[in-house]
Amino acid sequence: MSDTTRAEDKMKENEPELDLKKLDLKDDKKANFKERIIESIKSKEYENVKVSLYDTFSNMKNMITSFAKFETSLDCYIIHLGEFLKWFHEIVTFENEVAILNGITTLLDHIQNGVQEIGKNDYLCFVIIVILPILQDPDASMTVLPKLCQILAKFTQADKFGFAFILQESIQHSGKTPMEKSQFFKQMIQLFQQYLTIQILNSEAGADPDEKVINVVQTLSIFGTFSSYLAAINETNNFIPYYELYNETVEESLDLKEDYPKWKVHDGFSFCNYSFLLSTATKGDILRIESMIQMRHELQDSFFRAMFIGVNNPYLQLEVRRTNIIRDTLYQLEGKTNHDLKKQLRVSFLGEDGIDEGGIQKGTLY
Hints:
By secondary structure, this protein is mainly α. It is built from 18 helices and four strands.
């Protein structure tokens, strides 16, 4: 099975119903501020430019009408990344960036306060926001991202899918080279990763993750959860390697003794539930904890069973020959039950005296 086929299968697993064809922009030409802004710049009506930019980015309908393009190959509307970025660089000045930032802040405030409600296809607006170069500025990102992540974290599954679909198609139809697409995707991930790092560093040591941390992690899960649409697309197109999603600050602040039990019993937020942020080494630590807990439980169960049933070895005991370690081990494991396989391992070499306190076991395994 090819990588593309596997990715497509992943997309279909949790793919909600999504209708992107009902976005009718024919009667909204008056709300198209894009060309109006360019004309105002040409005629040097700079105050009108700032007003139009604010009006555009403070209203979802105005934003979609101005920038959404119908892609015939997909039979739906997307944001043409190349055209949008070209337009942005034509109009960008410090004053215009401030107007855009103020507009976005107003829009996000209105959404949070219920003044503007998110409707079908409105996630096109959020695609526009996350691809804005203005967010690469630290001050701008710290103004926008807390509000943006709070909203994205509450997206329904259908909205997350729609957002992911439009975002990836906007990248795919950007007219850019594969390397440029990869770089753009990487910058977008890094934007949220840096924000997550800052929020963790600003948190009190040992404190539970606050709402801002939880919101940005849940937002990153749109990109990083391997059952999601974007993750499958990323895997197919090799936008970024999986390790780009690791976050060192998360790992440094992670207390598995506290986090792991929450994950196992689904008690509140747990970083273990967002494994795409964790390196292979940390995932290995989680597996070791899981193994130790299972061995401890099995050891306790063995003692209780011995009390009522009779003699019952609390360990997974293997007796092997040095000259046939692999064959002897596999032969004996074949006859063990699931309960036996969860027990702590004890190994002895045939014809040799010795109590396995870990050394003999290591000699067998390594």
